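Work Package 4 report. The design task specified in the project plan requires that, given a folded chain encoded as structure tokens, an amino acid be chosen for each position. We show below one input record used in the internal validation round.
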């Protein structure tokens, strides 16, 4: 069983999609060992608790410095002995030490087709505002491994979503979640849990 930590900051709809996929057998060979949030009010925490999954909050507000918070966060994570870390709407910049401790064992979902609309400053609705401002006809979502850069790690899965006439950032965000994020994040976890994913030279290969 692949032990997973899901890191969240907000609504937790991606977490919900993962839990649902585990319940329905779309993800096999994996379990969520812990859900960790930096935000005690995150709906994601109650979603986890409602599902009988251990949910903890480690807030930067409870620490004197960022360094102390980072240390506590990493210590918590390490104590959970997980094989994979899933960033599902986690709005904290990961400490470098964490990235180095879990090479190719941290994945993130980003709500665009990387390398479009990604990198510093592109999060949440801003991504969809930028896509609409540019007038793209297709956008989508990307699951990628996390490296030291922002949205620069090896790409695991992508799924395109149509942009429609009259879309607002909110409408587009919802469509990208429903049609892409909630599909490819669980799929990526299932592929990893079943040893179908390998990385070489910054490129991902998926075995059928
Ligand atoms: C999603 O749009 C995800 O792509 C981004 O943050 C959002 C999280 O939403 N990284 P939720 O908390 O899973 O509902």
């Amino acid at each position: 069983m692949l032990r997973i930590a899901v890191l969240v900051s907000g609504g937790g709809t991606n977490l919900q999609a993962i839990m649902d996929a585990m319940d329905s057998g779309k993800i096999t060979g994996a379990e969520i060992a812990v859900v960790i949030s930096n935000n005690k009010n995150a709906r994601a925490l109650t979603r986890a608790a409602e599902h009988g999954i251990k949910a903890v909050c480690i807030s930067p507000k409870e620490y004197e410095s960022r360094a102390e918070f980072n240390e506590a966060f990493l210590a918590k994570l390490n104590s959970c002995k997980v094989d994979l870390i899933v960033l599902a709407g986690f709005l904290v910049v990961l400490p470098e030490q964490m990235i180095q401790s879990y090479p190719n064992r941290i994945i993130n979902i980003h709500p665009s087709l990387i390398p479009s609309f990604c990198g510093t400053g592109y999060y949440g609705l801003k991504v969809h505002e930028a896509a609409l401002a540019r007038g793209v006809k297709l956008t989508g979502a990307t699951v990628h491994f996390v490296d030291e850069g922002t949205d620069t790690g090896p790409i695991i899965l992508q799924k395109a979503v149509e942009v429609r006439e009259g879309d607002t950032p909110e409408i587009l965000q919802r469509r990208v979640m429903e049609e892409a994020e909630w599909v490819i994040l669980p799929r990526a976890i299932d592929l990893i849990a079943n040893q179908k994913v390998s990385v070489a030279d910054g490129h991902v290969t998926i075995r059928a």
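The mean pLDDT is 97. Validation will be extended to a larger panel in the next phase.
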